[in-house]
Predict the structure.
Amino acid sequence: MTATTASLGLYPEILKYGAADVSACFSCGTCTATCPLGQEQGTFPRRIIRYAQVGMKDALLGSKELWACYQCGECSESCPTQADPSEFMAATRRWAIGQYDKTRLARTLYTQPIVAILVAVLLAVLFAAFMYSAHGPMDGQRLAIFEWVPAELIHTTGIAVMIAVVLAGLAGVWTMVRSVGGREGVGWRSVLGSRDALTRTRRAAWVALGREALGQTIFRRECAADPKSRVIPWYRRRAIVHALVVWGFLGLLAATALDYGLALLGIKATGTPVPIWYPVRLLGTVAGVALLYGTSVLMLDRYRAANRSVRSSTVADWLLLALLWIVAATGFAIELALYLPDAPAWGYWIFLVHVAMAMELVLLAPFMKLAHAAYRPLALFFVAFQALAYTPKEE
Ligand code: SF4
Ligand code: SF4
């Protein structure tokens, strides 16, 4: 049996991540009865609050249920003491991202707003200055952005950023998987050690990745079941807007990777003028529209505190939305500049901002809320894996 040690500073530490003070919680269990996940997850979310209150740090870090929550706010609506468990879950996830990240950058971004803004500005300036240092001539006849900032430099820097992100992301994922797997008693043998184990792993992976991460089945189902969401036009509903941001972001990443792939294969050099219906450009344009619309609605909702899930916002929340919005908006401004008869000088400068912000966004991904794109599917994998009954052969 594993010894459990209490961390006295745990609760005050989570409060630093923007958590609502849940000291009024007296474990009545109303939130568990209300939570759409409560039936499947036993005593969730009440148990998470108790873990924090009594300092059970390892239990929190190893909690798969924490990431299953999609911040619908139902629990907070029903809490008799106004303890706001929904916001507490969100802050505990931010804290967990800070704990899984060993560089402490995530912790800094979440708990020190001024430093977070300075880091964001400094990174953008550094990326822009680095790109600008290698700039070529500014063609006034056509917008030759990849001659002004050499495509080769952008590709090389992009690859270096991706390597850093993958390493940082994998380190966080490794820590998370060890924490949750250790707590659940799920090890390599359980998931890969036999034919039955592989079947169960494959089915759990499909539920986590296909049905939930990409299809967002529970998110959409609960949104549709929520009577409050029915009075909101479909194009403003959380599930739709969230899906547009997710698919818009993935689409832009795919368009960038495909464009680089075409250049490597010698099919189309980066920067070659192509019509708007050229497949890679079309993908980038559609994805950009989705991302720009989605982030605009999310920012507006946050500004208005339009629903429970956005009633309180941290600087890190705004920072992420701002980066996503700037990357999408500057992408469109470049497209516009490309179709203007004479190459406007502002097109070059917007391009520099776009590249610097895109690099920064990708580089900071493992240290911000975007990290949940990795942690949530993994946690959902454990949820699905445990839900599938063990077969006698595995034991
Ligand atoms: S958070 Fe509120 S509803 Fe949930 S157990 Fe505590 S007091 Fe009850
Ligand atoms: S926010 Fe929604 S999913 Fe999360 S704990 Fe509360 S009721 Fe459950």
